[in-house]
Amino acid sequence: MDFDFKSKAAAKRQKVEDEFEFDGMKVGRGTYGHVYKAKRKKNGDEKPTKYYALKLIEGTGISMSACREIELLRELKHPNVISLKRVFLSHSDRKVWLLFDFAEHDLWHIIKYHRASKANKKPVQVPRTMVKSLLFQILDGIQYLHANWVLHRDLKPANILVMGDGPERGRVKIADMGFARLFNSPLKPLADLDPVVVTFWYRAPELLLGARHYTKAIDIWAIGCIFAELLTSEPIFHCRQEDIKTSNPYHHDQLDRIFSVMGFPHEKEWEDIRKMPEYGTLMKDFRRSNYSNANLPKYMEKHKIKADSKEFHLLSKLLTMDPTKRITSEQALEDNYFLEEPVPTHDVFAAMPIPYPKREFLTDDENDDKSDTAKARQNTSNSSSHAPNAKRVRVVPPSNTSSNPIMTQQDYQQQKHVLQGYQGSGGQSNSQQNTLSYSTGSNVHGTSSTVYSGQQQQQHRY
Ligand SMILES: Nc1ncnc2c1ncn2[C@@H]1O[C@H](COP(=O)(O)OP(=O)(O)OP(=O)(O)O)[C@@H](O)[C@H]1O
Ligand SMILES: [Mg+2]
C-alpha cells in the first residue's frame, strides 16, 4: 500500500480512546473479550448520562469475512436486539472494539439475585408477569433475527440484557448474536482455542448428538431453557462444567442431565434420532430404563409450575426434543400464554422499583484477568458453580450496589399500556425467507406492530 495514503488514512482514523472514556470501568469479561462501561469525551448534544458498552475483542486482528459479518450485524435494527453502533479497528495494536448501548442488567445477574434469595431462605421468585414479558421480548427479538436468517448460536442468560432506568427502561436486548461464529474462526479447530469455560446447559440435544449445522430450532431450545430457569431460578439442565478443549460435540453428562429431566426420547417422538451422527454412541452409553420415571411435567410440578398451566404448555413446545417438531418463534409469539391476563408489558419491571444491583466495576489489570481464567478452569469441576460466575471477580464500590429507581409518568403509562402493539408483532409469515444465509430484501418485524413504528420494513441487503 502507498505509504502516503497509509499515513493519511491513519491520521484521519478516529481512535476509541480519543472519543470515549472507559478507563477503570470494566464491567465484564466473557468468552470473546472484555466489556467496559463508556461515555463520550465530547458529548455534543447528547445527555451527559448516556452510557455505552465497549467490547474489546480478545486476540489480535480480524479476518475479512468477520469484518463483512460485523458490517451485516450493524444493519440489524429491532428494539429487542442490541444495536452495534460502531466498530473501531485500532491499527497499532490490531485490536477490535465494538460499541453498543449500555444495558444495566442481564438475566444472568437477575437470576443470580433470585437464587441468592433462595439460598438466604427468603425466596423471592422472578415475578410471573416479568417472566412473561421477558419471554415475549426474547421471542420478538429472535423472530426478527430468524426472519433475517441470523442465528444467535449462543443464547444464555448472560446474553439477554435488560435496560435499566432511562427511556428504554425494562426492555430486553439480545446481545452477541452470531459471535459464536464470528470469533471462533472456522479455520481454527476447537481444540486449538484457549481453554475457556463454555456452558453446555443451553445446548439442544441434536447438537450434543453431533448435528452438523446450527439451526433456528437450536436457538429455540435455548430459549426454552431460559424460560424454565426464569420460572424456577434453577438452570433446568444444570451439569458439571466442561472445557471447550473437547472438540467432540457429544457430551455424555449433559445428555444424561437432559434425559433425567425429560425422560429418554422415544423413536416415535423423534424419528430422525436414528440418523444423528452420535446415535450409535448414545445407544451404547445409555439405557432407556434408567429414565423411565423422568418427565417434564414432574420436574416442573416440583418447582410449583402446574402441568395444565399455559406457561407449562408453551415451555413443553419450546423444549421439544425433535427439532423438526419444536415450535418456531413466530408460533410461540402467538401462544395463548401471552393472551392470558396479565399480558406482557414493555417495561419488564412493570414500573416497579428495580431491586437488582447495578453493574459493578472489575479490576482492570491483566493479572487479574489471568487469574479469572485460572479460576474459571478450577471451577470447571465445581458442579454447583453457576456458569458465567466462574469467569468473574467483582470489586464492589458500595455506592454502586443499590439501585435508584426513578419512576416517571411515562413508566406508569407504559405499565398501563398493555401491549396492543406486542400482540401480532410476531405474526408475520416467514415464507419469503427461503434462501439460506443472509436473505435479500427481507421485510422484517411485524407489519401489524403499532409500537415500534419507524423500525418496520427494514430492508436488508445481505
Ligand atoms: N451492552 C452491554 N451493556 C452492559 N453490559 C454488557 C453489555 N454487553 C455485555 N455486557 C456484560 O458484560 C459481561 C461480559 O459480557 P460478554 O458478552 O463478554 O460475556 P458473556 O455474555 O458472559 O459470555 P459470552 O462472551 O459467551 O457472550 C456480562 O455481564 C454482560 O452482561
Ligand atoms: Mg455475552
Features:
alpha+beta, Phosphorylase Kinase, domain 1, Transferase(Phosphotransferase), domain 1, 11 strands, 31% helix, binds adenosine-5'-triphosphate, serine/threonine-protein kinase, kinase, Kinase-like_dom_sf, Cyclin-dependent kinase 8-like, Ser/Thr_kinase_AS
The termini sit apart by 29 Å
- Sketch the major β-sheet: 6 strands, antiparallel
Mean pLDDT: 78
- The quaternary structure here is single chain
Q: Helix count, per DSSP?
A: 15
Instruction: State the helical fraction.
Output: 25-40%
Number of beta-strand segments: 11
Number of domains: 2
How much of the polypeptide forms β-strand, as a percent range?
5-15%
Radius of gyration, CA atoms, in whole angstroms: 22 Å
The geometry reads as globular
CATH H-level name of the largest domain... which superfamily?
Answer: Transferase(Phosphotransferase) domain 1
Query: What top-tier CATH class of the largest domain fits best?
Result: Mainly Alpha
- Uncertain segments of ≥5 residues (pLDDT<50)? 366-462
Order of helices and strands: HHEEEEHEEEHHEEHEHHEHHHHHHH
Helix-strand category:
alpha+beta
Q: What CATH architecture of the largest domain do you see? A: Orthogonal Bundle
Bound molecules: adenosine-5'-triphosphate, magnesium ion
Reported by name, the CATH topology of the largest domain is Transferase(Phosphotransferase), domain 1
